[in-house]
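User: Design a sequence. Structure:
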């Protein structure tokens, strides 16, 4: 599965996955429960029609 999310590290070491689309609420992610998670890239530009 592949998601494009903003990542916010929490004080307890977990991550908060945040979507730019407000329809999708932030998803907490405890790394201890999901040790196989990999960050495989970085979005560096977004292009869209502004009309």
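Assistant: Done.
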């Amino acid at each position: 599965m592949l998601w494009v999310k903003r990542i916010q590290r929490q004080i307890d070491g977990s991550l908060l996955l945040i979507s730019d689309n407000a329809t999708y609420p932030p998803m907490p992610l405890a790394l201890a429960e999901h040790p196989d998670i990999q960050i495989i890239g970085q979005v560096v530009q977004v292009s869209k029609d502004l009309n």
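Strands lie at 6-9, 15-18, 27-29. The chain has one domain: 1-40.
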